Amino acid sequence: MTTTRLTPPIEFSADISQITDRFQTTTKPLSESFLADLNKICPSSSDLADRVEHSRDWWPLAMHWSLNAQTARRADVICRPTTTKHISDIVALCSTNSVPVTVSGGRSGVCGAAVPLFGGVVIDMTSLAGVISVDEISGLVEVLPGTFGPDLEDVLRENYRLSVGHFPQSFDISTVGGWIGSRGAGQFSTRYGKIDDMVAGLEVVLADGSVILTGTEPAGAAGPNLSSLFIGSEGSFGIISKVWLRAHPIAPAERRAAYMFGSFADAVEAMRISIRSGATPAVLRLYDERESKRAHGGDGTQCALLVLDEGETILIDAMMKVVDNACIANNAQSADVALVEHWMNHRNDTSGLQALSKKGFVIDTMEVAVCWSKVNQVAETVKKSIMTVTGARSASCHISHSYIDGACIYFTFVAEPASNTLEAIEIAYDAIWNAAQNSALDAGANLSHHHGVGINRAKFIKRALGPAHDVLAAIKDALDPKDILNPGKLGFASSRGEVKTKK
After folding, report:
1. What is the tens place of the pLDDT at every residue in 134-151?
2. What's the whole-model pTM score?
3. Domains of the chain (ranges, CATH numbers)
4. Which of 129, 133, 442, 457 would bridge 142 by S-S if both were Cys, CB 3.0 to 4.6 A apart?
């Protein structure tokens, strides 16, 4: 599989000693005795550079903070456990002392989920890494949560001829635990599913330090699926310390195709018919007119559909035929299959985002999922709502993941703030996000497909879930009564007080 290396986060505009916090929260300094007890459990660091770097992720708005010598909110200490017992002991100690705990992996999230809003302890999970065991007969992989994507796939492919099939854009810099915590989706999800579908079981450390297993048996029915409780919880309900994933045999064959459509609606219908007919190619990726021109050339009047499938030859040939028939029936023209290769070689490159951010532009993406009957409406409504915002320069979308009942629409927007001040940048950013997210919810989309909630989407989650959010809050209170696990996330009000923004 071809991968590209992501660029590092935007550098700070000042020396590390001059970095300040964007978010202001009331916290108590950690005592020397507490820090000494932490060091007895596992290696810990209070180094300033370490604390600053572990207090940010890939949230595009936070890139502007970096350019203004700010980070989101510094942690007080970084712990690097190498065993489940280390995590258990850390959490138990934090529970006794009412110290907040935030889990950190590759910090590739784009919504601020890994930011320690109330300081305290950040647990860096990347030292808890590696494949523990593989059940080759059943295709079950026991892996530690700090394992990065390439390391997992390399071991499985080279030693067992297996693959999990999870390839997010952040593949090179994201970890297994992060995939699960944010409820992520890889670029081959139409074939292999989201991370939800890949998780067979979990080991989880709860807020009091106790450890539970959610079970690894296939198709269990002993009450609700407890794994689902922690998938997408962003470390707010418990800390994942071990994972069992379902793996697939390495595909022996691959097929690719590309098509051009004169209308977005025709292409959507071709995708819908393909999926509803049982064709689930690994990649079924549609770009609107603007993104097609930007990524694949042309005159901006056509929409590009990229198709890639892998597996047994007899199966993927049938899949590709179903897709081809659906495309032809909906007025498609065959395009150069090299478009797929171009996408494969550039799909993880985020350098453009950083370049525009450095020039003062506001740029971000927003992904939602919606049933097939509403895809066209949501796509047009959201793009129009973005362009009504003062300073908006571009709004486009592509469909990145497809399922039997609907698809993920991935929006990209660019805006030029009234000035290059941080205040103007945040005003423009918030205005576009408010317009885009509210119009998507109004049109029947969900809140998030795979980027999670974090800080960025917290203000929308109660509207998205309605009374169901009260149920989540009750679960949070029951599992974490002292509010030590990633407080202030998922739209939960924190007993630790208000989060204010530095002026």
Report:
1. 999 999 999 999 999 999
2. 0.95
3. 16-125 (3.30.43.10), 129-249 (3.30.465.10), 253-323 (3.30.70.3450), 351-461 (3.30.300.330)
4. 133
